[in-house]
What we know:
The protein has 79 residues and is mainly alpha-helical. Helices cover 77% and strands 0% of the residues. The chain has a domain at 17-69. It contains two helices and no strands.
Amino acid sequence: MGSQARWGKNVLIAFLSLFFLAFGVNALISAYSTKNPLEFIMYFFSSSLIILISMVGIIYPVFRIRAILKPNKMDENDI
C-alpha cells in the first residue's frame, strides 16, 4: 500500500495547496478593490499564478494516491 512517509507527504502537499488556494482566491478578490490599474494587474496575475500552482499541488497527490491504491495489472501476454 505504501509507506507512512509517502502518505504523509501527499497529505501535507494537499493541505498546503489548499491553504495557498484560499490565499490566492483572497488575493484575487482583494485585487478588485484597488484603485490603481497597475496594482490591479499586478495583484490579478500574481493571485492567478498562486491559484494555478496550488491547483497543481492539489491534483498531484490525487494522482499519486490513485497510483498507490490501483493494483498493478499485468497482461496475460506479458507473462
